[in-house]
Design brief:
The protein has about 350 residues and is an alpha+beta fold. The protein is about 25% helix and about 35% strand. It has eight helices and 21 strands.
Amino acid sequence: MGHIKLANIGKAFGAVKVLHDVNLEIEDGELVVFVGPSGCGKSTLLRMIAGLDKPTSGDLSIDGKVVNTVPAADRGLAMVFQSYALYPHMSVRQNLAFGLENTRMPKTEILDRISEAARMLEIEPYLDRRPGQLSGGQRQRVAIGRAIVRRPVAFLLDEPLSNLDAELRGSTRAEIAALHARLGATMIYVTHDQVEAMTLADRIVVLRAGRIEQVGTPLELYNNPANRFVAGFIGSPHMNFLDGAVESIAGERAVAALVGGQKLELAGDPRMTVGMRITIGARPQHIKLGDGDGSLPATIRLVEALGAETVIHTDVAGQKMLVVAQGQHKLDPGAKIRLSLAEAPLHLFDEKGLRLGVAV
């Protein structure tokens, strides 16, 4: 079992509150990713689940038992750190065995668990090497293996890929996803990289300033962000935002006047009123080059030719707008183009940044 429940969890360091009434349930077998900018409280939350920090308020339960005062060693959890935390003077085999030996587990069972984890993670050829003789990706697999041999209630992973280069991050991320599928174990994964969050998670928990902004599947957050912060954080490149005001409302349709005078027709929302200031969001991949209904004049500022796609940085009436166009396009900085939003799902937010709806 690996059911974890956080009820009104708060954490303060002196007078500084870093977590505010966090409520969350993680089901057995889920891979849940905590994501958010630096300083949002995601690592602090993970450390409290692990037992390395104590909550100032609220209750933390594992499989129905409140564990606020239970020491980390007795919670049945295994943590994988960003820095690997391997013993440099020990071989890989000794690193994997160390924690089990301390529990006085029979030697034959220790060997069986090491063999199983090494085969699963494809580190059998490295069992007699020391960490200094391994690459970063191999060391991270050993750190994960050390967690696997314990057969914990849940795995806690604190930015485990941040020390790896881009290619290794991609391959190791795939290994973690495959490992979760094989083990079926509860995993809580902390990262600031929303691409990792989107590709790994069953559910994503988006945090900002110690509060949960939204919880949902990757596609729920991508397609239906609860507010402007989530909309801008989930998705790569991030969502474009254009400021404007509601000019008119007719039935289920509305017209917005953007900064600069351009007009856009939108789906209405019961909360809209004429004159209301709104923000219109559009993802770079949904914007097309060319004229037509809902097109906006833009000036090209920078072109990034990536081969399979072209990333175009533009200016629309003083507001930055990013476009990801499929294929190769010969475009020059300073050129005037038009951007069509006719096929783009437009995400609408009120003055407080709260979601109004999707104009489709």
